[in-house]
Amino acid sequence: MLNRRVVSPSIALVILTLMLGGGMLQRLAAQDSTVSTTPKSGFTVSAKPNTLTVTSGAATTSVITVAPVGNFTSPVTLSYGNTCPPAATCSLQSPVTPTAKGVTSKFTVTATDSTPLSSVVTITGTSTDSTPQTASVTLSGSAATNVTSASSILKSDFGFGVALGLTANVTGPDIVNSAIVDANGIVRVNTRANTTAGFMLETHYFIWPPPDLKLINGTIADPRWWGTGPFVAAQPGSSQIIQAVGAGWMIGFRRPKGSTPSAFGLGVGYEAIPTAQVLGSPDFVNGKPAPIGPNGMPLSIRYETQDKGSVLVVLSVSF
Q1: Hey, which of 164, 285, 288, 314 has its CA 20 to 30 A from 116?
Q2: Where in the chain is the domain with CATH 2.60.40.10?
Q3: What CATH superfamily classification does 42-140 receive?
Q4: Residue 233, class by beta-carbon neighbours within 10 Å (0-12 exposed, 13-18 middle, 19+ buried)?
Q5: Confidence grade of residue 147 (pLDDT, cut at 50, 70, 90)
């Protein structure tokens, strides 16, 4: 007859308790590990687009988005360190303060010569209340540009020359490069572009005093020491062949013979900017509360593009 070993009920109960307790301890350990490795709040950084094709003399941009994780609302400082290539200049709007839906900044890179670009720029976001976060923007490009093409055509086919231009947006609304919604839900404009100065391409024709017929026929040199007449100026751009164009009236004076430059001309007119960036109206107004979204939080900044008119002042050094 076989001997059977009988386990007492008390021993079985102890074994069952140890098995259940061990599984519970494992689950608690896993939960504790999850809690300790997942931050309660912070932020992420992303770039769109994350690949930019940059050409000589032209500027292109990537939108950097800082999105909060959890209840993070602290300011974030954005920087690219020493990752901007030597053949370009870089700029980045910073710092920014995330809202519930995040906040955007604009990273701009401009090629300063014809050296082809091939590098990666690392955008780093830092905050005292979170660990640093990064996003990468890959740069590539060549020397061929719309800017060079447009400049060549205006110079060779239309007789345009280099002039110094100053534009001022005096009619409103503001031309805005960057804006945020702060921690209190108020719209704040960081940078405006209402006044700009730079080189333009310009051509003019002095119709008064009336030129002599022999001057028009090219049989004599221009004897006039002053003149006045219309001018046209253009600003070649990167994403469009012409970024802005203006026209007005100019008065010019010839300098003494042998002087360099040979003349001094000052013109005043109107400039049209087809694609100016402004705050999205009527919802977003600088210094006013941002509109509230369905979740009860302020909406992120919205921009719109519209045509704008500005006062244009041009300095020319040719008669």
Answers
A1: 164
A2: 42-140
A3: Immunoglobulins (2.60.40.10)
A4: buried
A5: very low
